[in-house]
Design brief:
Elements: H1 7-15, E1 20-22, H2 24-30, H3 35-45, E2 50-55, H4 61-76, E3 81-85, H5 90-96, E4 102-107, H6 110-118, E5 123-127, H7 140-146, E6 154-157, H8 163-172, E7 176-178, H9 181-184, H10 193-201, E8 207-210, E9 218-221, H11 224-229, H12 235-242, H13 247-267, H14 291-306
Parallel strand pairs: 1-2, 2-3, 3-4, 4-5, 5-6, 6-7
Antiparallel strand pairs: 8-9
Helix pairs in contact: 1-3, 8-14, 12-13
Length: 307
């Protein structure tokens, strides 16, 4: 959850019984921790399991080498749950499975699930059309149906803002859920108060998809800055994104720019100047609440529904 996953938030989710996920660029670039020391800070806050997000797109050799080092450090510090996205997860599986690590891979449709299965992942994160960040195109129901037959557990990612959404996802057959937007509106998250209150006040129609951040649609709140800049990439960027040789180059430029823009937007009370990521789960969020209370309430709701 770039850029919102600060150590205090990760630890609070794990301490309550979820699995807080460390995002390494967020931990180091946004929140200023050396990666190993950031993991150790989380360990001082909770003894419960935590996970790591590995965004593994082949953007550059330097980035790949850095991600390899981060994964090695995470393994050395006891992390055994990994979520991969935007690339072939085979090398991550090969690295962590011998140490009894578990890899779940982000997918938005069946063909990516097939690639994940063939790479040896242990589970799938099914990113639907209500997710924040890079949302999928299918509903939670349609995506679950499309992922049938793989023999892998799937987590529902997108549209889960309250315990009713959580119970519904598990009732569909999902093994669990991955939440992002819901945990921004918590005291533990370092996001600005304006960002948190904007999530609480927003409805589904206040979430739009913009290509101006990364070159592909990203779910954000419809702030004055988004309306001013527009939602579609320019003609030059579109041309570059279609080229087999140029798409990685332009995506790298977009990625670097978006890292800076989202970091700046996290901490400033400035919807007139910043992007604020959010999924359509905002419709179910009506208060800023402690992360641990959210986890416990969701778990209690599922236990009650399963009785």
């Amino acid at each position: 959850m770039y850029p919102c996953s600060n150590p205090e938030l990760v630890a609070a989710v794990s301490e309550a019984g979820g699995i807080g996920i460390v995002q390494p660029i967020s931990l180091t670039y946004v929140h200023g921790h050396e990666f190993r020391e950031g993991l150790r800070l989380i360990r001082r806050l909770t003894s419960k399991p935590v996970g790591m997000n590995a965004l593994i797109e082949q953007s550059s050799k330097t980035y790949r080498e850095r991600m390899e080092r981060w994964i090695d450090v995470a393994l050395e510090e006891g992390v055994r749950f990994f979520v991969t996205s935007l690339g072939n997860p085979r090398w991550v599986v090969d690295r962590v499975a011998p140490l009894r690590g578990v890899v779940y891979h982000d997918v938005t449709e069946r063909k990516w699930a097939e690639k994940g299965r063939d790479a040896g992942v242990h589970g799938l994160v099914a990113v639907n059309d209500r997710a924040g960040g890079h949302a999928g195109r299918l509903s939670a129901e349609a995506l679950f149906d499309e992922l049938g037959g793989f023999g892998l557990p799937a987590l529902c990612a997108g549209g889960i803002g309250n315990e009713r959404d959580f119970v519904r996802a598990l009732s569909l057959g999902y093994a669990g859920a991955q939440l992002g937007t819901r945990f921004i509106a918590t005291p533990e998250c370092r996001a600005s108060e304006a960002y948190k209150q904007a999530i609480v006040a927003a409805g589904e129609r206040d979430v739009v998809l913009t290509e101006r951040l990364t070159g592909v649609p990203v779910a954000v709140l419809d702030t004055p800055s988004v309306r001013r800049l527009g939602l579609t990439a320019g003609p030059f960027a579109r041309l570059m994104l279609r080229g087999r040789r140029t798409k990685h180059w332009i995506r790298t430029i977009y990625a670097l720019r978006s890292l800076w823009a989202l970091k700046r937007g996290l901490l400033r009370n400035s919807p007139e100047r910043d992007y604020w990521q959010a999924g359509r789960s905002v419709a179910g969020i009506d208060a800023v609440e402690p992360a641990g209370e959210i986890v416990r309430r969701f778990a209690e709701a599922w236990r009650a529904a399963a009785e």
